[in-house]
Specification:
It is a single chain. The chain is α/β, with parallel strands linked by helices. It contains seven helices and eleven strands.
Length: 264
């Protein structure tokens, strides 16, 4: 996989993907309350559970990398649609220092709960194609300093990877789909995001989340059930359109647990 520049994935894409989306429709099941009742029961077990935090973490080990494909409407594909984030290498890059702040234009006034997005100096991840562990690092570059055709001050994030020969990071990150067949019958999907102390084989934090599609899989007018389900989520993704807040969600939670080493 060659070095490349992070594709901009952000709120700017939302109008393209969902222009003209129809309002939520009523449930098409015989018992319209059944899905919401089941969802509310699942929400009683949802939340962020942080058992301990760790300071000055330089790097993390991604035990599972999110797929490139976005599941927008596959009811019984158990690929954790609640936890949808960047996919492939871009998921890895979201954990690297400099990627977020370089590629996203931030508002002039940040909300009080805006995450730091410091991220980490390196990330290890397994390549499923060869079963080997690679170490990813990144850097911020200003192309105008060395190339023509770029605006002065414009910055880009570039990552590279190399075969990891040394010890793996102590702390790992993984995710799982925890939906049952009965959940999916009602278009409910569940997610578990874990931070693990690999040295002690101990889960030190976990975020459990659920969401459901109130229109029960309606795909008319280009509607995407799993993306629209973000409006009915616990923990909440925020106001509609909430699917724009899914990217970077894993890195944001992990930073609450594994406080990154301050980059000077």
């Amino acid at each position: 996989m060659k070095n490349n520049t992070l594709r901009f994935i952000g709120l700017s894409l939302i109008p393209v993907l969902f222009a003209g989306c129809a309002p939520e429709r009523t449930l098409r099941k015989e018992h319209p309350d059944a899905a919401s009742v089941r969802f509310e029961a699942r929400c009683k077990t949802a939340g962020e559970f942080i058992h301990r935090t760790v300071e000055n973490v330089e790097g993390v080990y991604l035990l599972k990398v999110r797929p490139e494909k976005i599941n927008r409407s596959e009811q019984y594909t158990y690929d954790d649609p609640y936890g949808r984030d960047h996919g492939g290498e871009y998921y890895i890059r979201s954990f690297l220092h400099g990627a977020y702040t370089t590629e996203v234009t931030l508002p002039k006034v940040l909300p009080p709960d805006f995450p730091p997005h410091i991220a980490y100096g390196f990330v290890d991840a397994l390549d499923a194609s060869d079963g080997k562990r690679y170490r990813y690092t990144g850097r911020v570059e200003e192309p105008a300093l060395t190339k023509k055709g770029f605006l002065p001050g414009h910055k880009i994030f570039v990552h590279s990877r190399s075969l990891a020969n040394g010890p793996a990071p102590r702390f790992g990150v993984t995710y799982d789909d925890i939906s049952t067949k009965e959940d999916r019958d009602y278009w409910i999907a569940g997610s578990s995001l874990k931070v693990i102390d690999l040295e002690k084989n101990e889960i030190i934090a976990e975020r459990i989340g659920y969401f459901y599609d109130s229109a029960q899989g309606d795909t008319s007018n280009g509607r995407s059930p799993w993306l629209r389900a973000t409006s009915n989520a616990c923990p909440s993704f925020g106001s509609t359109p909430a699917f724009g807040r899914q990217p970077n969600q894993a890195a944001v939670f992990v930073e609450k647990v594994l406080h990154p080493q301050v980059v000077k």
